[in-house]
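Backbone-to-sequence.
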């Protein structure tokens, strides 16, 4: 029973606009009872199909590769102009190094360093951009830590942080025309976000629910993203596989909403989000090592004249270690 609440879902991305992955903080299910560690995560998010034209959304349209683009940086005459071409798609990939360290028994510090790999294909022309993206740092306080009780066990984490403007947001084509905000590897904005995460467990079953809210500043071009809300939920079950192995199959739900991009303080109508995704996940642990995988497909998409949300994929490997000594408050 006690092992159940050693899991946690950290922050589900506070990132509207770019597939909720610009300053997203989704961590997956991880061994959690004051486990510091690091992981390498790959996220894939795809948009395609114009719903107002009756076009279906496909998880892997032609030309959109799940792991890596065909080219890291290329432009074959790309122009960002949606005209309903069924071959249009926007793929956002992030390879991200993530670290978590407990400063105290109830206080954790997190840092994410992303490498962005974007592909946008519109009207038969493709643009690929890649590079180090915007670094995210945030802290969480474990307000409720009822993990050593019989019956229902609970943990409530509240916190907040910043997405820093470390990625390049000034990339332009051969004519000097700057690419749209979502085709950049960075935003040029400093974003602040707050979140709350509840994890509960009972007899092998667990539930994690996370909500976050983000606000963005403007960059040097007075370009930004409207405030955004993200909700993430996971229902999981612990399956022991011998002495050193355990597995956690899960059902995962993801919802995001934002009014999209702004320019000079006004909404542009570009990339507004209001969609929900649902799908399975599987997390496998061997001692301190972890392998995490999940995929979510659309169950709801609000009317839009842009390519629709078609799904997301998350893969990660990680290593964690239990702390017995902290920088604050000494030994546990």
């Amino acid at each position: 029973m006690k092992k159940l609440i050693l899991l946690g879902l950290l922050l589900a991305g506070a990132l509207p606009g770019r597939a909720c992955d610009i300053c997203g903080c989704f961590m997956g299910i991880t061994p959690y009872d004051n486990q510091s560690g690091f992981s390498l995560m790959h996220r894939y998010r795809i948009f395609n199909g114009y719903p107002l034209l009756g076009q279906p959304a496909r998880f892997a349209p032609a030309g959109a590769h799940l792991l890596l683009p065909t080219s890291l940086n290329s432009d074959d005459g790309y122009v960002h102009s949606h005209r309903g071409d069924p071959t249009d798609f926007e793929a956002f990939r992030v390879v991200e190094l993530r670290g978590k360290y407990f400063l105290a028994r109830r206080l954790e510090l997190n840092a994410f360093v992303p490498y962005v790999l974007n592909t946008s294909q519109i009207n038969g022309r493709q643009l690929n951009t890649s590079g180090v993206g915007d670094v995210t740092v945030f802290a969480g306080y474990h307000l409720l830590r009822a993990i050593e009780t019989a019956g229902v066990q609970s943990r409530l984490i509240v916190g907040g942080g910043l997405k820093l403007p470390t990625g390049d947001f000034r990339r332009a084509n051969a004519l000097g025309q700057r690419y749209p905000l979502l085709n950049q590897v960075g935003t040029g904005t400093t974003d602040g976000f707050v979140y709350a995460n509840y994890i509960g467990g009972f007899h092998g079953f667990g539930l994690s629910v996370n909500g976050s809210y983000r606000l963005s500043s403007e960059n040097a071009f007075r370009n930004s993203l409207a405030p955004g809300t993200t909700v993430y939920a996971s229902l999981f079950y612990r399956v022991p596989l011998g002495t050193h192995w355990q597995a956690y199959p899960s059902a995962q739900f993801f919802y995001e909403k934002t009014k999209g991009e702004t320019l000079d303080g006004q909404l542009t109508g570009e990339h507004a989000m209001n969609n929900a995704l649902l799908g399975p996940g599987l997390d496998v642990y061997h001692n301190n090592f972890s392998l995490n995988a999940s995929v979510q497909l659309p169950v709801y998409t609000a009317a839009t004249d842009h390519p629709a949300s078609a799904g997301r994929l998350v893969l990660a490997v990680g290593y964690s270690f239990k702390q017995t000594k902290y920088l604050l408050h000494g030994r546990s």
